């Protein structure tokens, strides 16, 4: 292997990592592209999410799951699929299907449909019996802005209900939830979450845009958990975590740049 | 196959579809990527267009065509190639070459060169003897804006001349023709086309951007014909047609969201 | 091969080309994608740069280099890797590693770290003993704007020091160096470089965005050297060089459009 070892780089834990996790979104990769991707990048991929309802129109889903197993990578289905199944009264069917597939993680979200807080907590609790539940907070509608105190209440309630991790909504585009519709990070929100005592190791931040990855790494450190990473950006994200790109070079050159 | 069947989803006709067509643009895929793409997504791909003059610099064009044949997918060459051949006085040569390849569809456009309306109609008529002609209306120059009545006159004239379908220009970028240079849909134009009695089943709308796909689906329904779809967006577009993504969830949850 | 030969197109020299060079940036392609890409597009690819520090996190670097050798394509490592090695006092180790790999080209840049002009010249001179040196001018920080006269002085000094080519910074995003943070070309800068007598055949312009490629081709001709070209854009760029796309159709239709 030609990979150079002459540099001093920040430590990165190897998989399974308790934090510094990279969760990739599959928005419809070809089967060949999926196989290539994981063969090349598996050391840097902790999870794959089959985005929103793409699983339903992926004829090669079985083959993709077999490839994930081969690399020991866990996966889950996008929250929108859960929301549709739930709203159609088909949650039992979805759970049975997921169990059949041997799925270990399950996302519970309310980014599209309306759901009462107690009902969401009840679902998290129920699904936690069978899965590690990722609950998602935040709306997919950029116009629906929640106050920081609502975010904090909801994150706490969902962890209390048994959520394994809480995902902070950003969409595949990075233009809702924790972002303004321009893609700018809602700085005040993240600051209030921190001051409010939220444990960021329990959070996955959806950071699809490079500039958003740079912001979270710069403010929360190289081991922040990030989700909705496009497959083509995984190598680039790893260089950002290690200070191998201009934007985060402070991680590899701490004395030279702050 | 792991694809879940527990949801109630809108009906989608299978291929060959009279409408609800997805026409993909190949802007220069690798041969391997092209093969992977069609193996994975062929049920959702009705046509492939070799964008503008890319065919001329694609050393593996024969192999790509063989793959299309294997999946029973028709294809055509971007209108710019026709326009250059025509303007160079080489249309006969281009037609002979296309016939040699067994091409069944042919695009006639004037998005780049100037062409009199009667001349374009004459060409459509002539080429219709050998091919199913797709004629394209609209300029590739975002500064050249045609009035809705011009659009209607031209679409009618080209269908009358024998065009099989009329393509509404949007470019690969989605920033000309039926769009402003910002990518915003020219709402008034589409509305006037509808009020003017244009048969949208005869139209292919170029909708490269997701937000444009969402707009056309929301306004013209899940079975609108769309062209200039990037290969990587085909699965995503299919989820939009089926109401499996937040933006068009009204298709799968009609009672819950309007 | 089905490629049509009926059109009159501008001449393009075949490889190795003294100018009209396309240098691709690999930002983290999969191994399979890399192989497919070069099998399909090798006639149009003159160089591959392993972007910034991606080489360090590319487990399949050896295999990628073997594929490049197979196609006779030269490569180099992004300047940021050099800058980090230099700043960590590990330049000797990096040079030894590069020699071991049989690398022929080497980038010397100061887009991230501060370096005195004489020190950069000294490094260019030193590395020119072992490599063809590409020196890069311009900052990766869009806020750090150099005056045109500084650009001219620096380009001259680096060529005098032995640089084989000088790269004009644009980043992978096209939003720094020769561009404003909006991606707009710094027109006045390019004009002053030309009036200042800079030999553009000695320059590689980083032109990641299509609109930037179109600008440089339109102003400096079809044989301008371009770098930071995304693999997926190589076929498209070749059509732009040959006048096979609307934006540069003047190259294939000189009498019709200017």
UniProtKB/TrEMBL annotation, chains A, B, C:
Keyword Lyase: yes
EC code(s) of this entry: 4.4.1.19
Record keywords: Lyase
Keyword presence, GTP-binding: no
Record GO terms (molecular function): phosphosulfolactate synthase activity
Gene3D superfamilies: Aldolase class I
UniProt family annotation: Belongs to the phosphosulfolactate synthase family.
Stated name of the protein: Phosphosulfolactate synthase
């Amino acid at each position: 292997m030609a990979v150079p070892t002459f540099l001093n780089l920040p430590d990165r834990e190897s998989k399974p990592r308790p934090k510094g996790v990279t969760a990739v979104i599959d928005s419809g990769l070809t089967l060949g592209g999926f196989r290539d991707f994981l063969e090349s990048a598996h050391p840097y991929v902790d999870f794959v999410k089959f985005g929103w309802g793409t699983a339903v129109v992926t004829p090669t889903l079985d083959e993709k799951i077999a490839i994930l197993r081969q690399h020991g990578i866990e996966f889950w289905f996008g929250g929108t699929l859960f929301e549709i199944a739930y709203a159609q009264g088909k949650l039992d069917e979805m759970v049975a299907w997921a169990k059949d597939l041997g799925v270990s993680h399950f996302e519970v979200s309310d980014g599209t449909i309306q759901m009462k807080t107690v009902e969401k907590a009840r679902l998290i609790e129920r699904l936690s019996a069978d899965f590690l539940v990722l609950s998602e907070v935040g709306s997919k509608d950029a116009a629906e802005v929640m106050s920081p105190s609502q975010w904090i209440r909801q994150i706490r309630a969902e962890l209390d209900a048994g959520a394994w991790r809480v995902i902070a909504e950003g969409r595949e585009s990075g233009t809702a939830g924790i972002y303004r519709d321009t893609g700018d990070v809602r700085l005040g929100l993240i600051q209030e979450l921190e001051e409010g005592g939220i444990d960021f190791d329990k959070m996955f931040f959806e950071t699809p845009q490079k500039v958003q990855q740079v912001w979270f790494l710069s403010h929360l450190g190289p081991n922040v958990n990030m989700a909705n990473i496009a497959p083509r950006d995984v190598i680039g994200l790893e260089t950002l975590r290690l200070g191998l790109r201009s934007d985060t070079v402070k991680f590899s050159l701490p004395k030279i740049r702050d």
